[in-house]
Design goal:
Length: 385
């Protein structure tokens, strides 16, 4: 029985909350994981129930490397992968190992709001960098590098959360070049890379540059299989990898998640992961198109947004002076929710922006949510502006 008081996600009935950035329950792959688990648990090899190698299960890493090779369209070396309990945990571990309280981290403006919380936990000094339609603005980065000495730079290069933009191939090269010249490490959060809805693939992932030994690429099964698995990986070059593998956390507990890795290994080997990804791509494409069209139909032209090519999000830019946080209070009364832009700003700005996720609700709900949102926006503008 699903008791709403203890359920992971507690949505009030009738509420269309565009703030929810996870798959709907119907998209969670229970049947696939039943098959994967049965195949693994029916075998006679109990080794995945023991402490594992610090870097993570080698069989799983080999299968994952092949899977990533196929989807990234670049070679992926299993020896450069380290298993984590998800991208968030990987991010936290990297902050523990490669930064000290008071160090500077560069982030994009906007950036993933929960990553900002992790950096705050580590008492890092957060400096924001502007973005445009081509992703992180490299000229602005160069300028800031003259004044600050970051130890880390955090970027979401492909299908950004929340802005959905993608960093161009040329800028990726420039970023790597700058990290080498100015001696900082790049954490590229690539959790949305495989969620591409366009015909052409996105530029190759930053994972392709790990041999530079200034880059960590974070990946996760949260967006392509199921977030509850808490399974992800860090891909990096040999010198940086060695420093992670040797850390106390991994030395004490062994590699992370051997049990889940064994199940997901079966899911990949049995083609179930691939089937799930295909289902997600079809469903999210439909949802993205439906929400974009409904927003175009209902919202006035003064609200700007780019239809995304991938990921989970549509980023609305409302007219200057509209405070999305205030508007959210009124939206709740009309049973529609969203996350206000200020949450994604490390500089306390972006008050007139809104993040909408299309991952959770189905097409009719997304259309109805867009209609409600437009009503709230129009009433709010008339009242307050
Ligand atoms: C950019 C980004 N990184 C990381 C995460 C969390 O990943 P995980 O579930 O693997 O910790 C999310 C989830 O929303 C995200 O959007």
């Amino acid at each position: 029985m699903n008791d709403p008081s203890i359920a992971q996600l507690n949505l009030s009935p009738g509420m269309i909350d565009f703030g929810v950035g996870q798959p709907s329950p119907a998209l969670l792959p229970l049947a696939q994981l039943k098959k994967a688990a049965a195949s693994r648990l029916d075998g006679n090899d109990p080794s995945f129930l023991a402490y594992g190698a610090n870097q993570g299960d080698g069989y799983f890493r080999a299968v994952l490397a092949d899977y990533l090779h196929e989807h990234y369209h670049i070679p992926v070396d299993a020896d450069q992968l380290l298993v984590t309990s998800g991208a968030s945990m990987g991010l936290d571990l990297l902050c523990t190992l490669f930064a000290r309280a008071g160090d500077t981290i560069f982030v994009e403006e906007p950036s993933y709001f929960l990553a900002l919380r992790i950096f705050a936990d580590h008492r890092l000094k957060i400096i924001s960098l502007p973005m445009d339609a081509g992703g992180l603005n490299i000229e602005a980065l160069e300028e800031k590098l003259i004044r600050h000495r970051p130890v880390l730079l955090y970027t979401i290069p492909t299908f950004h959360n929340p802005s959905s933009v993608t960093l161009g191939a040329e800028r990726r090269k420039q970023l790597v070049e700058l990290s080498r010249r100015h001696n900082f490490l790049i954490i590229a959060d690539e959790v949305y890379h495989l969620l591409n809805y366009a015909k052409a693939p996105p530029p190759p992932p930053m994972a392709g540059y790990v041999d530079a030994d200034t880059i960590f690429s974070l990946g996760s099964f949260s967006k392509i299989l199921a977030p509850g698995l808490r399974l992800g990986w860090i891909q990096t070059g040999p010198q940086l990898l060695e420093q992670i593998v040797d850390c106390g956390l991994l030395d004490s507990g062994g590699g992370l998640n051997p049990f889940t890795s064994a199940l997901v290994r079966s899911a990949i080997e049995m083609g179930l992961q691939q089937t799930q990804l295909a289902t997600l791509l079809t469903t999210y494409t439909e949802r993205k198109v439906a929400l974009s069209n409904a927003l175009k139909e209902y919202l006035p032209e003064s609200v700007r947004f780019i239809e995304p090519d991938g990921g989970f999000f549509i980023w609305l830019v409302l007219p200057e002076g509209v405070d999305a946080e205030q508007m959210r209070v009124e939206a709740r009364q009309k049973n529609v929710g969203f996350l206000p832009g200020v949450k994604f700003s490390s500089a306390g700005k972006l008050e007139n922006c809104v993040r909408l996720s299309f991952s959770y609700f189905d097409v009719p709900e997304l259309e109805e949510g867009a209609r409600r949102l437009a009503e709230v926006f129009k009433a709010f503008r008339n009242d307050k502006c």
